[in-house]
Amino acid sequence: MIKVLYFAQVAELTKTRQEDWPLDAPVSGAQWLESLIARYPELAPGKRLKLAINQEHAPLDALIRPGDEVAVFEPVTGG
Amino acid sequence: MVVVQEADFDAAALQQQLRRRTATRAGAIVTFTGYVRDYASDASTHSLFLEHYPGMCEREIEALCAHAKSRWDIDDCLVVHRVGELANAEQIVFVAVASAHRGEAFRACEYLIDALKTRAPFWKRETLADGKKFWVEQRQSDHEKTEQWNPPSTSEQAGDK
Asked: N or C end: fewer C-beta atoms under 10 angstroms in chain A?
């Protein structure tokens, strides 16, 4: 199981901010994003999705492991 | 010190706070304040809503401050960033850097605001005067500004700007 957090426009599109996601073996960020988009096809068009794993920016080839906190969002726009 | 809050801040009081904390060591304090403004030339901005990732946000900005301290000779930094609903012309962000020398303070302050814009997990939703709402997209120019600070060794060797 992993804990998934959605922010900003991504949260609006998935209509949820947080959910538990079954995961029993490590998977790359890119592979996991494919399963995310399969579940939420509205995330696919033109979205530049970024991941943070355990509250750190993560490249798409980073591994997601059971127990991780994974956040999904578009490029940040603070400041 | 890094604070993310909904409440407005007193920029002068924050600068005094940093001044007291670094008194006798800091010969210079450089500050930056960011305000909500009209972002498009053909539409006026009514307000911004800022969302953030609590926890990661503070840690990310702390990491940027730690990086600034390792790269420049600075004594301390202070960052306050607001979230929630902000009306046009309100304050959004405050960055202050104290150093023995002004050059280091200027560079570190500019680095911090540039890097914050592309690294700290905040997202802006803009509401125009006509009621239209949309999530703001990251500007390519902001991305490039942050990239210009990398890699540290190359830019510093290139004439120590």
From this structure: N
